[in-house]
What we know:
Largest sheet: 4 strands, antiparallel
Radius of gyration: 32 Å
Number of helices: 27
CATH superfamily of the largest domain: Multidrug efflux transporter AcrB transmembrane domain
CATH topology of the largest domain: Multidrug efflux transporter AcrB transmembrane fold
Low-confidence stretches: 754-767
Amino acid sequence: xxxxxxxxxxxxxGALLLGMGAKDAQFSANQRDFFKPDDKNLNDLIRIEEDYxxxxxxxxxxxxxxxxxxxxxxxxxxxxxxxxxxxxPHSQRVESLSNHLYTRVNGDELxxxxxxxxxxxxxxxxxxxxxxxxxxxxxxxxxxxxxxxGLSLVSVILNIPEEDNGQAAVDVIDTVHQYVDRLxxxxxxxxxxxxxxxxxxxxxxxxxxxxxxxxxxxALVLVFLFLTFTLRDLVANLACxxxxxxxxxxxxxxxxxxxxxxxxxxxxxxxxxxxxxxxDCIHLMVxxxxxxxxxxxxxxxxxxxxxxxxxxxxxxSLTTAISFFALNFSESPPFAxxxxxxxxxxxxxxxxSLTFLPALIYYLPSKARGVTRMPxxxxxxxxxxxxxNKIIIGFVLIMVSLASLIPMNRLDDNFxxxxxxxxxxxxxxxxxxxxxxxxxxxxxxxxATENGGIYDPQYLNLLQDLxxxxxxxxxxxxxxxxxEVMKTLNKNLHEDSAEWYRVPDSxxxxxxxxxxxxxxxxxxxxxxxxxxxxxxxxxxxxxYDQLSDKELIDLxxxxxxxxxxxxxxxxxATIGSANLAFAHMQYSNVNNLSKGFVLALIMxxxxxxxxxxxWKLGLISMVPNLFPAAMAFGIWALxxxxxxxxxxxxxxxxxxxxxxxxxxxxAKYKYAREQLHLNNYQAVQYAMDTVGVAMLLxxxxxxxxxxxxxxxxxxxxxxxxxxxxxxxxxxxxxDLVLLPILLLKLFGDNPAQTGAAAFEGNxxxxx
Length: 767
């Protein structure tokens, strides 16, 4: 307070220096940014992509209003889309009904044609024949066309370079949308939908930018309006907002200096920082206004407010920052980035609220008159006292009942379901999954014993046994592998006799079949998506309906067990899938964040014991810190029961947030006992009077501000916002009802009982 300009200048300068890290920020446009570079499951998928074709694709669904794909106009549209597919940047392979290979044998000659070539030359009978073939052919039905022939798709496999992945993917999708818009005008009786992994990924930058334009401003407006209404001090409110903005600049800039990309998770951080920074400011402003009401001059009131709040703000900031830094245990880098940015921002808010804010308020006509008009809450103690036992029993029953529901929660996530159902890309993906193709793809790369070993009938029979094993799962949509090609060729070269639809009898025969087939293939239709370059390994692609994370991991374990029991070579088969990688990451995320939660809890407990210099108060503080999380996750089981990305970090984040009210309450209680020498009853009443209003204001502000996350188009953000709101409301009830009663019961609840003896534990708690 004696160096006000210096304090303000240094805080502003520090925020500007840190904030410069954001000047070259880039947006994330790749779902693989959610993984660590050394993630085993992701690297298994990358290894499969390197050996075969990429897993990245963009698809266009083609749905004629007539309900029949096999009409001249619809087939022409599919042909045009197929030809366009080859012109898309980074296109590696195009698959559609029009270029699906249709094999026939005339004498000794194998003819490989496109299923649909010259549409105008096809008679109605030809169209019917091709429809019958496509809707019954494995690898075509449920992939390129529905079984009823009412919907088709064109799939373009993309080989996008990693060094320019984000912008290249955006360019691809923009190119596709522009062409599809023109095609829609040409064929008004056909609906076109752009889907696929790359279409979903490229929605990320748009969501980041949209959330940046809406969530943070919305949270800021909500906080501003709420505090203006309650504090009745526009000038002080603006000063608090400026303080919070400096903290945001410091926190975000500090992380972006390292070159990380702005993800839909990281973009939430400003909203979180402003909420917690404003909580610090509220506590300072409430006690400042109360000091003015007692007749103190402005400087004395500010100094008294800083004195009373110094330790609580320091320790609440440390504990909250610890809980956010614990997100670095996460398996997903964006959550670690958010945790680090929020942690730095919270610590900077601590610094700014204790130095910059009081120095600024000194020069402003600020009195926060709204605080003095709010009733004191200490009178609640007189009502609590005669009902204490009933209230404790009620809380315990509620907590136990809600905690018993926690096992009903289940781990379940899917990258497509990260996007709100109002988004066009999500609706299109849901439509595709429901109508034509499953949402879960599992790749299995199986090595042979040597180069060219995939021709061995023993190896092909292994593929057949594996496919039969996979088909035991009722959720399997279809499989694609070398086996289907070999069996079809064997049938073709035996006059299309159905009894020859089987594995060739010898390695030489299989090799000759495949050589003749590949020599007949047109450009871009080779088998590189199924076999590697030296013919020592092949891939089985299995597509399933929607599976939960647990079901997917169980499926992988069953496949791996089967592979171990039927091992064909000493080399291990590789199972790779983006869906599997997310499932494993989610499980690891929960396990690692649980460790981070325990570590944060231990560190916070030690900090509280150090703050209060009392083991008993430190242990008591754990009740209002753990109860709200248990209650919130029980309530979540009733609301949703699905533990996804946002929920998996919620418990760690809310630990640091809910401990703030506990610290402020117990700090005021301890101050009353040691500095004001009040008895236990009076100290609890003093804590309720001095901090109760601030706790109500901060909780209401946080709950209102976190509703901004509910407007995000990114589902993990919505989940994080909702679980945080539930938790902090539960925490307020525990802090304002259960905690005062525990203090009364443990340290004596007799209004006449005085001072230090009861506080030190020398007086027996009342019954």
